User: What shape does this take?
Amino acid sequence: MKLPVVLLSVSLVANAALIAIWAQPSFAPSGLRDYFSGVRSRRNPGEASQSVASAKNKAEQPQPPSPWSAFEKNDLHKLVAQLRAAGFPSYAIRVIVEDRLRDSYAGRIRQLTAPDPNAPYAKMGSGQLSSDRFNEMRRLNDEHEQILHDLLGVFAYRDSGAITNDERRSYGDLSPGKVDAIQRVEQDYEEMKTQARAGMDNITLPEDKERIALLEREEHTDLAALLTPEEMENYDIRHSPVTGRLRQAMTYFHASESEFRAIYQIEAPLEDVIYPSSSGDRSVDDVVAAQRQANAQMSDQLKAALGDERYAEFTRSSDSDYRMLVGFERQQTIPDGAALQVYDLRDHVAQESTRVFNDSSLDNSQKLAALQTLAQSTRAQMLNVLGPAAGETYLRQASFWLAAVERGQAVSFTPTPQGTTSNFRSLPAPPRAGNAPAPAAP
Amino acid sequence: MKTSTALLGCSLLANGLLALAVCSKLSLRSAAPSAPSPSIQTPASPATAAGGGPEIWSSLQNPDLRTYRAQLEAAGFSPRLARALAAAELHRQFMARWTAVARKTDDYPFWEQLVRDPATSAELERISREEYETSRELLGPNPDGDAPALLHAQFPSLSEDQITQILNISQDYGRGRSEIFGSLAGGSMTTAMRDKLLALDHDQHAQLAQVLTPEELENYELRTSQLAGELRVKFSAFDGTDDEFRTVFRLQSNFADRLAPQYVPPTPEERDAREAAQKELSEQIHAALGDERFAQYQRSQDFNYQQTYRLVGRLDLPHSAADDVWAVQQDIQQRFPALRANRTLTPEARAQQLAAMADEAKTRITSILGERGFEAYKQYGGNWMQMLQRAPAAPPARTAR
Assistant: This one.
């Protein structure tokens, strides 16, 4: 009796499934669908192959192109034009172009300059490439630079059309195109000079000097072809070794442009005498005598040009003690004004040590005691003004003249444009038993 | 019973009718041509049509760098290029902030140097650090960068992960050093700053020791450390083997704390301690190299000998020529004090004998180096000969610069 109920249940479920398949044929099992496809193809072979083909076509239908695929990547000029039309900014275009060039240039240059992992520890890093590698590297660099400039113009290495403050300081108010051209010349010659120097192993023979001098003359000629005479003069003063040497003092002196140019015009002609690269055939004494004379001449000319007060400030800015003290003020480790206060203590020590030294009412032991007291009290004052951290550092620097005073010497300081010269006078040594006292040292 | 049977009969009839209906539908459906599935077509791309329109760039933009990078890759840019563009965008954003802060101290004339106050330096350092950390977090390491490639070339046995960690450590500690130097504001280093720098050196070494095996660490430091660089200068005129280099490096490393870099002038006590440490190290190097090689090593520390060694190389002479010149120098320098101190000589006689000694030096050295070589030697290694030319004079005044 139960069997009819079971059969009824199964039949009702089957009816539900059949209704669902009728409403949505995709619910039909795939085997059933395939069967009916096969029935159709047996009745109509042509229709079947079309059906298979259409399914195959659907699978092989090319994917729609990605946006990047639409850009002409093998023609860099077209690529740049397309990128600009698509709204890409300069920096993004530069990144994309560099990526296209990377394997051809950066990758190959890297291979040429790669360090040798098997180089002996003591010999690695000489910095010199073989001439073949160096020439190939230069060729690749030149090509790479040329391509970038052809494609991107002034945006090859800058995002905006303007030069930076650093470039303005180096070259003056020139156009970006001119600055780029100058920098390409500089880079080109710097590569050649670096390669030449690497081969010198820090020994400059006369032929090396001539080779570097030739490169520098040629570089100057190439630059002069790009610049007006006024621009060239401007370039020369900005890149002169005299200016390079003066910069540190100028940073503490805060010269106006006219003051700086006056100082430069006085110092430049005497550069080779005061800072000779070699003594040549001259004796050391001759070199020193020439330097002394040139320094005296320079001091007189600077005093006349700047006036006494500004000259005093200029020589002070060349003094390492003063620079250290001002440095502490800039670091904000000492209060404003403390630098000058401590610096002036040095002049006080000079005056006082000289006074004690010359005081005929004191014997040598009394002079020594007075000088020791002077040194110790100065040290204490400096620490008091500067504090422990800056004070300890400054006293390490100043110890050589303070220690001399403590040993019984009078000190004097002569400021010069090249820095301060210290002079010491020693108290005579105590006489040996039975001998007359020695006269005081001059 | 009759009801259920009747119901069963109806249901079975419905089964049959529905089955016919389904078969009919399926049969008809397979006969109809397939309706084309809607193809995924992008709208006619302006780039394809006319080289691109501004909407392409703007469509790729996204303030979130990860999304920006993903959109670039989805648009067909290679992973390398997508990363490079995202990195460039990141840098551009940070440069804008950096430039705005730097502008405060950027306006100085060409005849002065840049000086930044500590607050500005610290702010710039903070911005740089933030850029570096953001780049690491959002973009990850750059496998195509120059730095990893250089390290791979130098240390081919290290894994990519080790290379990445080494670079991260170098950059982290490099930043720490930059912060300290940035706080100088053109001034001098204090002992507190020096101690911080030395601590950074120590910690960096410890960090590298966690990434590399002891052997790998030593090889890395033998090629990249400051100590190894200083040792290469000392070895430049020694012609030492790799084993000798490694031996001296190991000994010197043991004195890293006692002979640490001097960032501030030493006190007398520090100078004495340093000299004692140097003496102890020399004794150990002597024991390791043996008498003959140690004598050659000591000689190679002399600046004049180093210059002479390099000079003979430039003159294409054998290195033994440097030893011969050195022997002449030693011989004359040993005889010179006695001549100078000889109170039985008149000044004229002393000057005559000094001149003869100078001529002897010139003749002997010229026979080794040639005339051209002797001229160069006067500048490179031969300045000791000046003592033979100068008349005794008071010590020159000391210039504080």
